[in-house]
Write a structure and sequence with these properties.
The protein is an alpha/beta fold. It is about 45% helix and about 10% strand. A 6-stranded mixed beta sheet has the order 3-2-1-4-5-6, sandwiched between helices.
Length: about 280
Amino acid sequence: MTYDTDGATGNGGAEPEVTDSLKGFGEVVKAFRRRANLTQEEFAHVVGYSLPTVASIEQGRRFPSASFVERAEEVLDAFGAIRGAAKHLSRKPGLARWFRQWAELEKSAITLYTYECRVVPGLLQTEKYSAALHSAHLPPLSDEQIEDQQRARAERQQLLHQRPNTTFAFILEEHLFHRGLGGEEARQELLAHLIELVQQRNITIQIMPLRQGEHAGLQGSLHLLETPENKWLGYVEGQASGLMLTDPKVVSTLKLRYARMTSQALSAKDSLSLMQRMMRGEA
């Protein structure tokens, strides 16, 4: 399952598709390792990574972490070649393969709508909340995988601050705040973060209250995006897959559902009041 919900994958070690840039980077590392007269096992020991990880990187089957790049550059005295090759890698670590196209579209979108009923969306997550999600992941994640996911999440979250002319709107189920994920400290940090975010003119958060029985989002979470050309696209995500929706009729249905939910959820003002009361332990 993609525990960040926005495609920050937790697939427990699934390898990326092999690309020319990954294979090229692997060949550069291999060449400098051989120049240093080190076996893969010896190199793995000195850089502090497992032999399978080093082998996968050299074969172009694993995206290297930033720490691996820096350590390999230092150990192999590669004249900046390894660091330079890393700049041309085409895969973004921490993002699920099926989410990358949507993540690229986010960067230029003029409108982004999100309804979430599973966990708080990745764009809104805090460090403690995200760490709790990672610790609960099955199969367990390695430190390197968690590092990749945290970095990818932090980079995506810059959109909220770097695109003041983009409209960000979120509808979140109230039960997400009562689940207790990460404990009370994580909950307080999350609420404080969301309360701060909605002070920005381009960010709106609405809460779907527990008392609201039937509503238009019962079919599941959804994402909507408007391109600079005013074309609307949709995205939905499952346990280990994501689906981009381009059919105008399907996207129109998602827009209708989202619009209905905005009237069924608490207003932005009442949602802010509820979050403030939850912080004080009054709700």
